[in-house]
Amino acid sequence: MVRRDRLRRMREWWVQVGLLAVPLLAAYLHIPPPQLSPALHSWKSSGKFFTYKGLRIFYQDSVGVVGSPEIVVLLHGFPTSSYDWYKIWEGLTLRFHRVIALDFLGFGFSDKPRPHHYSIFEQASIVEALLRHLGLQNRRINLLSHDYGDTVAQELLYRYKQNRSGRLTIKSLCLSNGGIFPETHRPLLLQKLLKDGGVLSPILTRLMNFFVFSRGLTPVFGPYTRPSESELWDMWAGIRNNDGNLVIDSLLQYINQRKKFRRRWVGALASVTIPIHFIYGPLDPVNPYPEFLELKTLPRSTVSILDDHISHYPQLEDPMGFLNAYMGFINSF
Q1: Domains of the chain (ranges plus CATH)?
Q2: What's the pLDDT at 290?
Q3: Torsional class of 296: left (φ above 0), alpha (ψ -120 to 50), beta (otherwise)
Q4: Measured on CA atoms in the order 185, 189, 191, 193, is the torsion positive or negative?
Q5: Could you tell me which InterPro entries the record lists for this protein (predicted)?
Q6: Which SS3 state, helix, strand or coil, does residue 213 take?
């Protein structure tokens, strides 16, 4: 009798906990995205949108050196946005006539449709569509990429190599800290859970918050170059814009795509004649040293290794070192 009474009280307690948790969880799941900081608001206000197959894509396009024919297109990484380039943006405008960056579909201020089959192929087509929109489809383009953007650049390089009509004409390619060799790529635990989580993925993405995000992202920065809390909030605001946290699991399928299309994308790097350069933060836990560089046996390619404490986001952690390395590459041919 006593045991039965105890079980009844326990059931009542769990019912009360459940009744309390439901409205709290409902309120949590409807927390609005954080307000944009003045700097991030300025970045958005100075950019523009174009439409790709009914979807709005955000981009930046700055005119730099007058009289120069040089154009550079910047391709950002996962899970952030074109704002990753803000620390080197002004420096690039001093060397190039046009400096262009976009937020890939599903990132930053661009649309984030769901459900949607996000793919590297589609992102490459969006880059091509942007340059057609800007009337630059017949110009020679310098590509500068990071992380996820490296794989998009590899697909663009493959298309260029195939001489397909409507594709970019690539003058040079510079990649940085991306998993261009799938066998040396070490995804974070959260990335593994989300890309292979099945029915758990939608739950995990809904439960993701600033604390989880910042705890997951901070370790990929070097110990002396970690972002401030305000910088992390800017990154999180970009992700939360248009409920972007709900498509992270779909975006992460790029890791599986890298493995599936390794021959296509690594092969594109191995068989071209344009100048190729790598800028590498050697403390990167996602693309670890020295395994990453040991596989870099590509023709006409060169490498800039930054200071020992620089990690996965070299353009944010060491913007001057990154910019100097890139300018050294651009001025070498």
Answers
A1: 37-329 (3.40.50.1820)
A2: 75
A3: beta
A4: positive
A5: AB_hydrolase_1, AB_hydrolase_fold, AB_hydrolase_sf, Epox_hydrolase-like
A6: helix
Q: Which of 17, 18, 21 is nearest to 207 (CA)?
A: 21
Classify 181 in phi/psi space as left (phi over 0), alpha (psi -120 to 50) or beta.
beta
Spans of the chain below 70 pLDDT: 1-30, 164-166, 188-199, 292, 294-297, 299
User: What is the C-alpha to C-alpha distance for residues 325 and 279, in angstroms, rounded to an integer?
Assistant: 7
Residue 124 contacts residue 148 (beta carbons within 8 Å): no
Read off the tokens for 14: 């769990």
Among left, alpha and beta (phi > 0; psi -120 to 50; other), residue 154 is: alpha
What are the CA-CA distances from residue 120 to residues 15, 50, 67, 77, 300 (Å)?
A: 46, 19, 34, 12, 25
Structure tokens at 63: 């005119």
What SS3 class is residue 222?
coil
What is the distance between the alpha carbons of residues 125 and 129, in angstroms, rounded to a whole number? Answer: 6
Say if residues 237 and 230 touch (Cβ distance below 8 Å). Answer: no
Give residue 284's identity as a one-letter amino acid code: D
Q: What tokens appear for 332 in the block? A: 């070498």
From the list 228, 217, 224, 211, the residue with the least C-alpha distance to 286 is 217
pTM value? 0.89
Amino acid 188 reads L
